[in-house]
């Protein structure tokens, strides 16, 4: 089943990516492939991972400390979450 997530992070994009993947591992997800979308001038991004438990998409933004929460959703809501986040990121980066 797909999962969507929301993360807060005091770190930049690279360290946030590492932290999210690390936390997913602690939650029992085995990452098979992952990619990261963000625009350099925006304080948020999207991490998309293929895992042994299905696809996971995490939208992150800046925050005071690192936190991550996940929700299990159907495929339609997962796809919409990913598409909307990528569209917003691309629209604001130009």
Topology:
Elements: E1 3-9, H1 13-26, E2 31-38, E3 44-51, E4 54-62, E5 67-72, H2 75-92
Description:
Strands 2-3-4-1-5 form a five-stranded mixed sheet, sandwiched between helices. It is α+β, with helices and mostly antiparallel strands and 94 residues long. The mean pLDDT is 92. The radius of gyration is 12 Å and the shape is globular. The protein is built from two helices and five strands; from the N terminus they run E-H-E-E-E-E-H.
Oligomer: single chain
Major sheet, described briefly? 5 strands, mixed
Number of strands: 5
What is the string of helix and strand elements?
A: EHEEEEH
Derived structural class: alpha+beta
Biggest sheet, strands in spatial order?
Answer: 2-3-4-1-5
Characterize this entry briefly.
The protein is an alpha+beta fold. It has helices at about 15-25, 75-90, and strands at about 5-10, 30-40, 45-50, 55-60, 65-70. It is built from 2 helices and 5 strands.
Keyphrases for this structure?
single chain, 94 residues, alpha+beta, 2 helices, 34% helix, globular
